[in-house]
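Example record

The entry below shows one chain as it appears in the dataset: sequence first, then structure tokens.
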Amino acid sequence: MQNNDTNVRLSRLREIPRAIWALGFVSLLMDASSEIIHALLPIYLVTVLGASMLTVGLIEGIAEATASITKVFAGALSDWLGRRKLLALIGYGLAAFTKPIFPLAASVTWLVAARFVDRIGKGIRGAPRDALVADLAPPHLRGASFGLRQSLDTVGAFLGTMLAIGLMWLTANNFQTAFWVAVVPAFLAVGLLVFAVHEPERPVGLRKLRSPFSLAELKHLGLAYWWIVGVAVVFSIARFSEAFLLLRAQNVGMPVMLVPTVLVLMNVVYALAAYPAGALSDHANRITVLGAGFGLLVAADLTLAFTKGLPGLGLGVALWGLHMGFTQGLLAALVADTAPPELRGTAYGFFNLFSGLALLVASLLAGALWDKFGPQSTFFGGAMFAAIALAGLSATRHIAPTVGHAPKSG
């Protein structure tokens, strides 16, 4: 019986189109490159270039806001042009060509410019890439396809962090060497996208768009799509920045040098869970599987709120990673389920914009709660918003009864 289950899982993996595998490895390589730099950049700015903490915060804030805003326009443009790979390539290309600036930069100004362009690249590629996955994935493997890409993306984040730690140890804290190593996977990602990903032909009879941002076109997205976006926004407020996991680790007594292992544990669990959760959603009701992910966040928050030691911290962080695996790929698959094919880029653009803004609000709220009432209140607040999101998700069955049902194969 166990052998049969294993054979079925392997068969499903083989059914996923090669171009989606390639997009997953593109994400893995670029994330590994980016994480090497992002893991070290704040320390480099402060200790080597003498930047203030305010400068670091300003750089990160501008960078992420830029990425969120760019996603909307890039997604809509990919719908209007009918060329998703081109925009994804521009986005990945911009990110790759900024990487050599980091080891060469002699001032904060150059690093700000590089970080800004890098995030523009991220914004340009995000929505067209997700829409391309939706275009390539067979409907009955949509959850598995998004889950696979998410798993490989998270493996890249994990590998990048580990490489950053290893490179600093091997080179006696030589930041420039680590930054130069980050250049290599970035250009490999661009090469893989160019040669291994082929955009499918635009379906015959697909409606030609005049203006993706017009009210008439946005109405075509439909109530089910906007309801899912609303649920995702509330859920994003519940899942504030992972920086608060690091702060909680320090708060319960973890030695400072070991605090980054929290993110390693979270990403390992996340990577292991994302594909199985996506594949499960193709054979069960996607709303039900996603609801389990929302419930896992409630459990993670309550565990982290009540824990007083490292075992409880480890359990809470593992549950946090598990909830990420059960939600991120599935939310992306639900966007593809509910948005018309000709508006998928626009749909992902708005989805990413509103979710990104909600994450900003979430982190500000989490920080305010922590400062005012202590760490328990931050995680209680997260659990409360996750429960509200779960209630909204449950209401989807009444708002849009057909959403979430597993498509038939073939």
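Notes for this example: DSSP finds 17 helices and no strands in the chain. The chain has a mean pLDDT of 86.
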